[in-house]
Amino acid sequence: MNAEDLKRMAAEKAVEFVEDGMTVGLGTGSTAYYAIKAVGRLVTEEGYELTCVATSLQTERIARESGIEVLDMNAVESIDLTIDGADEVDPSLHLVKGLGGALLREKIVAAATDTEIIVVDSSKVVPKLGTRSPLPVEVLSFGSDHTARKLRALGCDPVLRTKEGEAFITDGGNLIYDCHFPEGMDHPYHLEMKVNTIPGVVENGLFLDVAKKVVVAHPDRIEVLER
Ligand code: 5RP
Fold this sequence. Notes:
binds ribulose-5-phosphate, six-stranded mixed sheet, Alpha-Beta Plaits, four-stranded antiparallel sheet, 2 domains, Rossmann fold
């Protein structure tokens, strides 16, 4: 079984929680991709009537190609269930998200969601946040060097994300600093508050108390963790 099999298995397990008539949030990333495909099959092969919103432009495109109609976020009152990936999951089901660059829309969608289901392979489960992933922080480009200095003062090494030699630009037109904490993040609530009070910070990749369920694909089994 390879890494792609594990991602697909976690995603397809999560899609079992989708019911006909639901409003569904579609996540972003290579694991969420398999959930979008499975939701597409519910619509095109099983006749489910779903209302869907996307957490990124990339997801919107994949969803449409999969036969799913995607509505604007403002066209829905609330979301029954969102299936999204994560970069890290800790024992309290707190998350780091955003290595795929969609943390801002993902957090807006999650905040409007009743049941957020996270799909990961077992490599994403960590004892402490920051162990395997930096913390992505989305910032305005205006004054971004100053914003980065304030981030550094919190004890991390903020690295501007690039793509093909240029600064990576999010769907919201902003930059991302990937903030490496050498010892991980010991106090994520406090850190989140500190990060969010820096002028220029648009959003951060800490998703605390957001996941209701986490579906973890291990090489020999699927585990569903619940809050
Ligand atoms: C995108 C995200 C993704 O959910 C996260 O990066 C996991 O992606 P993948 O399943 O490709 O590892 O937060 O902003």
